[in-house]
Amino acid sequence: MFDKVQKIINDSNLDIVVFLDPVHLLWFAGFSGSTGALLIGNSGAVLGVDFRYHEIAEDLKAKNIDVYCAPTGNLLKNTLDYFSDEKVKRVGYLSSRNSQSQKEMLEKNLNAELVAIDEQIDFIRSIKNKNEITGLTESAKLNADLFKHIREIVKPGVSERDLAAEIISYAVKNGASKMAFEPIVASGKNASRPHASFTDKILQPGEPLTLDLGVCLDGWASDMTRTWVVPGKKPTESLEKVFDIVKNAKKEAEAHLFAGVSGHDLDTSARDVISKFGYGDFFGHSLGHGIGREVHEQPRLAQNSKDVMLEGMAITIEPGIYIKDKYGVRIEDSYIIFQKKVINLGIDVFSDFF
Amino acid sequence: MFDKVQKIINDSNLDIVVFLDPVHLLWFAGFSGSTGALLIGNSGAVLGVDFRYHEIAEDLKAKNIDVYCAPTGNLLKNTLDYFSDEKVKRVGYLSSRNSQSQKEMLEKNLNAELVAIDEQIDFIRSIKNKNEITGLTESAKLNADLFKHIREIVKPGVSERDLAAEIISYAVKNGASKMAFEPIVASGKNASRPHASFTDKILQPGEPLTLDLGVCLDGWASDMTRTWVVPGKKPTESLEKVFDIVKNAKKEAEAHLFAGVSGHDLDTSARDVISKFGYGDFFGHSLGHGIGREVHEQPRLAQNSKDVMLEGMAITIEPGIYIKDKYGVRIEDSYIIFQKKVINLGIDVFSDFF
After folding, report:
1. What SS3 class is residue A277?
2. Which of residues B93, B126, B159 is at a domain's end?
3. CATH value at residue A302
4. How far apart are CA A249 and CA B85, in angstroms?
5. Residue A46 sits in which domain range?
6. pLDDT digits (tens, 9 = 90+) for B249-271
7. Are residues A201 and A318 in the same domain?
8. Residues of chain B above pLDDT 70, percent
């Protein structure tokens, strides 16, 4: 990662880059605390932390990042004084990750010109290296195991809340530090809400159950969605029809997925299938997104996206149809894009309806 | 809440206030989605949401907040156009919650003067009304039940990870939507890290186990810490001594806790006890913090705090001593401050060492 950040430093004529947000402390330094100041220059990097994280941060020392355990006071200023004797003039920072008050604090403490480097950082984060692909693959594998485990206990009489508790418990027991996002466990008409929370509702035979789950394993996110029928009754014909349309939309997008295709064209490929059957207005979100340290990253697969899929990108494809107060269906997998092939990270999880 | 925000509007001569961050959408509107634009003026309030949250947001309509389901596009601009025909000139916003790029977006779309109102909002959030106190009390009650449940299964041979899985599962099964923060389950020398994550370490008899847990119930956070001895062996004398010092430091702070005392003086009252026994350098964090929709809010109980405890505030007291690579002890409860009394929300949870 050093070389990529140093390229930004050189291209933008910066003295140093500053990261203050947890996502980028984790991404660059593997540091999982909530507070820290990471400074990167051409000569190296230092992570400044306070008392609460001294021991945790010192474990990182092997990874070519100097760790500075700052005294109580101004963490950024102390870390900067420790890092560099020279005056810094141009400093790269993240305008979308730092609040307005943090920006003012940076200006006051650094007394330097701040340069927003969000787009460059988002882009280099979107291209995963070998270790990052391994991390994402392991996270997706645990997530797939989670779906297989949960499938065994989906039956009438169980509540959405029971499933949610078992989901989180299984994930943590089997190595996750947490869920990558709050699990969506939505049955019956709750499934018509793309971002439903779980409720105390009891599962009924023949109704749809949407599970949108991801774990956080060693700091890597996963993301997968299945809509299954609760056993005990055949689903209605209209529900089955909607499921088939969503499944075909996903297949169509997968057929277009290769290095070089645009996020716009991928979105269109799936959206056209859904629109052809008259459900265009019921697919109100975009087709997918990048995934990595965060569950939503660059690139975006959407009508207004200008992103192009490149080798090393990790993305999701997740078409859906939502009929208000009736039901909903979404199917989602995650993929790694290589130069000559694409790998589906969730291929072995049951993806039919019932 | 309306009257309090409208007082800020009038005092600061604002036309409207804009909230874009999830915490304040939850605090003011009870909306639990990730994205929305909440505009509040003297004539009322509107919450603008996108397709994903239409149904969820419409459930809020009873609560005197107009819900606007915006078409795809610029959510803020569309919501503003819907809310007001008149030109807004001065707009209150949160400089610590909105990123620099969000601020630029606000400036571009509103074409108005932006006024940071962070301090005023933080202050009115720190004074809880009756409903908010009920919410915090219920959350603390579930958290206390969680501690009692976990105490039954703490024994040698169980891993920190096993406990973490059971903690989250119990909390969700019994009504929590999630943990208020990642559970700290730190045994033996891991307990020397104030913000340790749980590991695969197996509990050993006689070693300390620090549990710092909080649940999120109906959007209200709780926060409690206990350090217990793993059964099967007496703790060492030095560990027992440290426990007694922390316990006495907490008692001393509790004796000083009433409406009118300063956060600085509370911190000093506990810190003096710890320093008197020579452990001052091993209590490296501040004494406590406010709690509400978030686990860390105003006021602050710290050496550099200028906050004063007032009726309706909800706060934590959590002294600790951490001996690097050896062990650590922290004890924490949460309290509601009334005019003539203080209520400890975790009083009935076992708080002795063994």
Report:
1. coil
2. B126
3. 3.90.230.10
4. 41
5. 2-126
6. 999 999 999 999 999 999 999 99
7. yes
8. 99
Q: Is residue B117 located within the same domain as residue B241?
A: no
A296: buried, middle or exposed (CB in 10 Å: 19+, 13-18, 0-12)? middle
* Whether B211 and B316 share a structural domain: yes
Helix (H) or strand (E) holding B116: strand B113-116
Same domain? B99 vs B138: no
Q: Using CA atoms, how far apart are residues B35 and A79, in angstroms rounded to an integer?
A: 34
Residues A337 and A192 in one domain: yes
How many structural domains is chain B composed of?
2
CA B67, CA B57: separation in Å to the nearest integer?
7
Specify burial of residue B157 (Cβ count, 10 A radius: 0-12, 13-18, 19+).
Answer: exposed
Give per-residue pLDDT as tens, A65-76: 899 988 877 898
pTM value?
A: 0.93
Buried b (16+ CB within 10 A) or exposed e, A67-84: bbbbeeeebbbbbbeebe
Write the pLDDT tens digit of every residue in A21-57. Answer: 999 999 998 898 889 999 999 888 999 998 888 777 8
How does pLDDT run across A258-314, given as a tens digit for each residue? 999 999 999 999 999 999 999 999 999 999 999 999 999 999 999 999 999 999 999
Task: Phi first, then psi: give them for residue A100, nearest 5 degrees.
Answer: -60, -40
Domain boundary among A107, A126, A145: A126
B118 neighbourhood in chain A, CB within 8 Å: 101
Residue B27 lies in a domain: yes
CA pair distance B60, B36, nearest whole angstrom: 13
Q: Which residues of B touch A189 (CB under 8 A)?
A: none
Residue B282 lies in a domain: yes
Whether residue B350 is contained in a domain is answered as no
Among candidate residues A352, A354, A314, A350, the one with its CA nearest the CA of residue A145: A350
| Residue A349 token pair | 């999880």
Residue B157 φ/ψ, nearest 5 degrees: 100, -25
Name the residue among B34, B100, B182 with its Cβ closest to that of A178.
B182
How many angstroms from the chain centroid is the CA of residue B48?
A: 26
CB A262: neighbour CB atoms within 10 A? 16
**Does one domain contain both A193 and A290?**
yes
**Rounded distance, CA B347 to CA B333, Å?**
8
Short-list B201, B242, B226, CA closest to B349: B226
Residues A288 and A326 in one domain: yes
**Would A353 be classed as within a structural domain?**
no
Q: Do B98 and A96 touch (CB under 8 A)?
A: no
A293 C-beta neighbours (distance < 10 Å), count: 20
A 303-342 residues inside an 8 A Cβ radius of B = 324-325
Its ipTM equals: 0.91
What CATH number should be reported for the domain holding residue A92?
A: 3.40.350.10
* Neighbouring residues of A344: CB distance < 8 A, sequence distance ≥ 6: A254, A333, A334, A335
Task: Specify whether B139 is located in the same domain as B71.
Answer: no
Q: A284 and chain B: CB distance < 8 Å anywhere?
A: yes
- Give the tokens for residue A286: 């975009």
Interface A-B, measured as beta-carbon pairs within 8 A, has a size of 113
